[in-house]
Specification:
four-stranded antiparallel sheet; 14% strand; single chain; 13 strands
Length: 350
């Protein structure tokens, strides 16, 4: 329908003529204004205001208790425990407790804030005219004044019970996120500083799974060894072998340049960590004539006749040496653990 089909008396201009035009000038649409303000019961009855204050404080306090429950559940409940919850069925007790407590903590903060705003903060509507975007000194002064007025109307200074419980709830809730950081992985503590090697542990050939005797290691040969008792079917085999893997090389004692290396060897048999000190790759290439070992990843090269020092490549320090000897039965054994952490740069080793 076009404007030509509408009776003239129904058009806005026609309706406004004679009445609204005189009152509102050239604007035919009247400003409806704001409805009259109606006072709430809390505005006129201090007892009702106190009840609302206690309700808000109760919600904030309940949030604090729920946050404490979240942390307690995370610490106390085992991961593999399940419970029957109707109608969900069997579910993880830990997940259910964490979800419930965290949900209650967040809901109570939100519900408390909403109840506070609806019952105790000022609800009087104020019309504010549009103003330029630039922040003039007058605007800054007005914003500051509005902020002070809002703080005053929120009664946060006068309602100390609400203020203190709110601060308590908002302070405790972030602890839930801090606790969840525990799931990033197990704490390393000093585990990366130690391996399975200890005094009396036999050196076991990783290929034959048999203990090594000195006569089993020929001059110029390379043998890989593992600690006695570590088996491939163990659940933590990969974790432990990544720290305890050994290279066994026999060098003529007169060719060994480093005094400590000679003292920690047995008849020229030296045991060094197989883990490269650059980024932790397994070293597997051996030059028989020079007694150099080469990491295949980035070509770091170590001289096994001179304390396994780095002679080429990006590795930052020498390979750790394991002190070895022979027990009463004639088998090669460790005389302790590595004196320093094995693997890449120190800060990555815990």
């Amino acid at each position: 329908m076009s404007s030509q089909d509408i009776p003239e008396e129904n058009l806005p201009v026609a309706q406004a003529e004679g009445a609204d035009l005189d009152k509102h000038g050239d604007n035919p649409f009247a400003d409806p204004g704001l409805p009259p303000h109606e006072h709430r019961i809390q505005d006129i009855d201090e007892r009702a205001a106190k009840r609302s204050e206690r309700t808000v404080a109760f919600l904030f306090t309940l949030s604090m208790l729920a946050t404490i429950g979240f942390i307690a559940s995370y610490v106390a409940l085992p991961v593999d425990k399940s419970v029957y919850i109707w109608p969900l069925g069997h579910i993880s007790a830990l997940n259910f407790a964490l979800g419930t407590t965290l949900g209650v903590a967040l809901f109570c903060i939100g519900a408390g804030a909403v109840h506070w705003a609806r019952t105790l903060m000022s609800d009087e509507e104020i019309a504010d005219e549009r103003h330029p975007i630039e922040a003039s000194p007058e605007v800054k002064a007005k914003v500051l004044a509005d902020f002070k007025q809002g703080a005053k109307e929120s009664a946060i200074g006068r309602r100390k019970l609400i203020r203190n419980t709110m601060f308590g709830a908002l302070t405790l809730v972030p602890l839930s996120g801090v606790v969840l950081l525990r799931d990033l992985g197990p704490l390393p503590e000093d585990k990366l500083r130690h391996t399975l090697w200890a005094k009396g542990k036999l050196l076991v050939n990783q290929n034959t799974n048999e203990p090594l005797r000195p006569e089993d290691v020929a001059v110029g040969s390379l043998t890989f060894a593992k600690p006695e008792g570590l088996e491939e079917h163990d659940h933590d085999f990969q974790t432990q072998i990544a720290k305890a893997a050994l290279m066994i090389v026999r060098i003529a004692p007169e060719d060994i340049k480093d005094k400590q290396e000679l003292e920690w060897s047995h008849e020229g048999i030296v045991a060094y960590s197989k883990i490269c000190t650059h980024v932790g790759c397994p070293i597997s290439l051996y030059e028989q004539q020079t007694h150099h070992v080469l990491c295949p990843c980035h070509q770091s090269t170590f001289d096994l006749t001179d304390g396994a020092r780095v002679i080429f490549g990006p590795a930052g320090h020498a390979l750790p040496q394991l002190r070895i000897g022979v027990n009463e039965e004639g088998y090669l054994e460790a005389l302790g653990d590595f004196e320093e952490p094995v693997g890449p740069a120190f800060w990555e080793r815990g």
